[in-house]
Specification:
The protein is an alpha/beta fold and about 230 residues long. It is about 25% helix and about 20% strand. It contains five helices and 13 strands. The strands form three sheets. It has a six-stranded mixed sheet with strand order 5-6-7-10-12-11, with helices on one face. It holds the Pfam family Metallophos. InterPro entries: Calcineurin-like_PHP, Metallo-depent_PP-like, Metallophosphoesterase_sf, Pesterase_CT488. This is Ser/threonine protein phosphatase. GO terms for molecular function: hydrolase activity.
Length: about 230
């Protein structure tokens, strides 16, 4: 049994938004994902850190969900900024049940457990460096509240945090989220969102007591990152 993380699958099996238009790094990415996941076992767990499907609704994303569901192991799903299909937890869980998608659960306003480890997370929020003027403080405050709800649900367990947006970026910090990571003694924070040339601006490794790791699919060559056994 092992724990993995991967973000930004950007599946479009029922829509015309293949990421292959973004260059060689995305060529055959669906088959590469399938091949990489073939090394996982049914008892393994993968946290998927947002931007999973380009579908505009649950129904439009169904083929992408079926692809994810068929991959080995259990999957915990986070919301990304392009997950337009995202709905209430109750509606998503009902949709999964109705379509017999049995290996996926939502990580949102809650936490999941992997042995003694608490898996916490939310989408997060991010001041895009070229778009600071349109930042919505209400969204940031809501995401901070969701992350703290998740961390509180973990109790005294060791906490790992999974986000879509990076809370730490070359030349940028999100102090509100970083404060929570420090306050709750988070050991590891995995995040996605960054692609292509943005990879070089990611910050990885230890920072103020938390280890940071970029898990965007194209950064990892579509191979889930093993967190622990």
């Amino acid at each position: 049994m092992a724990l993995y993380a991967l973000g930004d699958l950007h599946l479009s099996l029922n829509s015309n938004k293949s990421m292959e238009i973004f260059g060689d790094g995305w060529q055959d990415y669906v088959s590469r994902l399938k091949e990489a996941f073939s090394a996982l076992r049914p008892e393994d767990v993968t946290v998927l850190c947002g931007d999973l499907s380009w579908g505009m609704s649950l129904e439009e994303s169904l083929e992408d969900f079926r692809f994810i569901d068929a991959l080995p192991g259990k999957k915990y799903l986070l919301k990304g900024n392009h997950d337009y299909w995202w709905n209430t937890a109750a509606k998503m869980e009902r949709f999964f049940r109705e379509h017999e998608l049995t290996t996926m659960e939502i990580l949102h306003n809650n936490c999941k457990f992997y042995g003694e480890l608490a898996l916490c997370g939310t989408r997060g929020w991010f001041y895009e460096l070229d778009n600071q003027g349109t930042h919505d403080e209400k969204v940031l405050l809501r995401e901070i509240g969701r992350l703290e709800t998740s961390l509180k649900a973990a109790g005294e367990h060791e906490k790992l945090v999974f986000l879509h947006y990076p809370p730490l970026y070359q030349g940028y910090r999100c102090p509100e989220i970083l404060r929570l990571l420090k306050e709750y003694g988070v050991k590891l924070c995995c995040y996605g969102h960054l692609h292509g040339a943005s990879h070089r601006r990611a910050i990885e490794g230890m920072w103020d007591g938390t280890e940071f790791s970029l898990v965007s699919a194209d950064y990892l060559k579509f191979v889930p990152k093993k967190i622990c056994e």
